[in-house]
Amino acid sequence: MRRDYFDLTVEGVGDGAGSRSPPLVRIDFHGPEELLRDRLSGGGSDGTGGDGGLLAADQIDVAFRLREPLGEAEDPEGVVGVTNRYTGDFVLELNETATDVLPFIHAARDATDDGDARYRVEIDVDGERLVAYDKDTFLVYDREGNLLRSESLIPSGVEL
Questions:
Q1: How far apart (Å, rounded) are the C-alpha atoms in residues 133 and 49?
Q2: Who wins on pLDDT, 113 or 139?
Q3: pTM of the entire predicted model
Q4: Banded pLDDT at 114 (limits 50, 70, 90)
Q5: Are 78 and 62 in contact (CB under 8 A)?
Q6: Chain centroid to CA 75
Q7: Which residues have CB under 8 Å from 109's CB, separation 6+?
Q8: Which residues are paired to 48 by β-bridges?
Q9: In this predicted model, what pLDDT tens digit does every residue of 133-157 receive, in sequence order?
Q10: Can you say how many angstroms the Cα of residue 153 is from the centroid of all Cα atoms in its chain?
């Protein structure tokens, strides 16, 4: 699936953010709906969405992989990926910059009193809601594939 099929917007980040509401990332898809629907269905008989339904929030993972080192580029580029937790298959990928993604993660941390950050992902097809997920994990990796724990959202009590 082509990365240019996707547009990403965020809410709840920056000066206009609500003080205690989780931030929202909206991914709008502008391609063949069947292709995205097929990727979001999981395609397995082991409870991974293969029953014709779409994957649930606990069946997907969201991550950001840098293509440039954080300290070397003014606005390091990377790839946001949504994957099927059970198969490891990419559901979707899109190009973003660290200055778009990292403030979102910081806003999710700041929007909680109990230390367990949350955010919402909404995936639309040409402006029509296909699925929405409430998530608490957002992993950030450097270009070599090493987890950047200090930049990631990792719920308390989770071992990686």
A1: 14
A2: 139
A3: 0.86
A4: low
A5: no
A6: 19
A7: 117, 153
A8: none
A9: 999 999 999 999 999 999 999 887 7
A10: 11
